[in-house]
Amino acid sequence: MIDDTAIRLGWEEWLGLPQLGLPTIKAKVDTGARTSALHAFDIETFGPAARPKVRFAVHPVPGRDDLTIPCSATVVDRREVTSSNGEAEMRYVIETLLDAGDGHSWPIEVTLTDRGGMASRMLLGRQALRDDVIVQPNDKFLRPERSYDVYSAKKIKAVTPKRALRVAVLSREPNNYSTRRIVNAGEERGHVVEVIDTTRCYMAINALAPEIHYDGKRLPRYDAVVPRIGATVTAYGCAVLRQFETLGTYCVNGSDGITASRDKLHAHQVLAAQKIGMPTTAFAASPKDTSNLMGLVGTAPLIVKLLESTQGKGVVLAETKKAAESVIDAFRGLKANFLVQDFVKEAAGEDIRCFVVAGKVVAAMRRKSAGDDFRSNLHRGGTAEAVKITPEERRTAVKAAKAFNLSLAGVDLLRSKDGPKILEVNSSPGFEGIEKATKKDLAGLVFDHIEASVKPVPLKSKRKL
């Protein structure tokens, strides 16, 4: 009697592993094999020892090594498997959902091994077959037909599931609020987030196999890097970040943008090139140019600012021309680089911090100076509150972050009679003040961006998949 409810499989079938981001894969069905196997390479475990995860990559289409699907799953076992040629191999075992089409799916265990030289990227063994599955070894492709076209650039993102990512945070301060928020936000989503001290990294620089080492060991591959590079180690930190970029790791902010934003003179030149409003600024190297330098900016009061200043340090308000000359002479005596800026009186000791993620202002706060201090930095006792910004301020902040190609930025601006004026673009903005002021989960929004950015995008090709 023929069982019409049975799931019939031929010796070769179109199947899917949707939880791994593999909606289509050709599999060999072999009842002679006990264990199922999936083609995988760059296999690497990560995460806590009590519940380890494994990440790996798959070329789902034979002969198309330009199409790589990154995957991750929880390890359920590691066991010795003997292949058909008699060779024994220790393999990681994962559990995932098998999609047989027509609404039929069930969980199976799969071992990970390199099947790059085989025509079938997957072997379906008898342990993976349910009781209602009938294998007809003389037939093939009894299940609904599928196509590799699902891996085209237009369709791949729609079928890619969320997966556990391995993320590095470059920071020398693992216990500060911003670093802890990033770590916690990632772990809440099932990702593994590791804090790496930038200054303890060292690099092997060569054309064939560039590497990054840390505490005597080669660093593993990361899906993404969140740079929180301190101002005092900008040069070395950006060198480490460039190494990650060379390895093809997604970096939330690039080394070029961080370098340019940290150099205040360079940063103002970048803003000026993009026609972005900012206080009138002047810079000179020679002491003979002091009067002319102040004349370019305007009348007192003036702001004299060290190029390396952070958190309001090294920023001086000169109420009179004579006071400005004294400050400039003092900075020159210290052989310090500085610039002179017009003081925006109407700002009245307030500025706006716009938090930009992936080209959008996701939060904004108004910072007020403490007492008679003209600087509104929270580190100097200033206070903060959520604020509604104007469309022009929003556009200006987004344009400023884009000028440095920063996906994550804190853009500081003043409200002047001539419209918003950019003070600074911070490539490592703090989370604490603005999250408390706005009650928004900004670290979570950063991970929304990371998850969207590390999805696989295959290379375009004229050849049909």
Percent strand: 25-35%
As a whole number of angstroms, the C-alpha radius of gyration is: 29 Å
Please outline the major beta sheet.
9 strands, mixed
Main CATH class of the domain at 7-159: Mainly Beta
CATH superfamily of the domain at 7-159: Acid Proteases
Number of β-strand runs: 27
Morphology: elongated
CATH architecture of the domain at 7-159: Beta Barrel
Spatial gap, N to C terminus: 41 Å
Unreliable segments of 5+ consecutive residues: none
Q: Summarize model confidence as the mean pLDDT.
A: 87
Describe this structure in words.
- This protein is α+β, with helices and mostly antiparallel strands.
- Among the domains are: 7-159, Acid Proteases (Cathepsin D, subunit A, domain 1); 284-337, 2-Layer Sandwich (Dna Ligase, domain 1), CATH 3.30.1490.
- The chain is built from ten helices and 27 strands.
- The strands form six sheets. The chain has a nine-stranded mixed sheet with strand order 2-3-10-4-9-8-7-6-5, with no helix packed on it.
- Helix 2 (177-188) packs across helix 10.
- The radius of gyration is 29 Å and the shape is elongated.
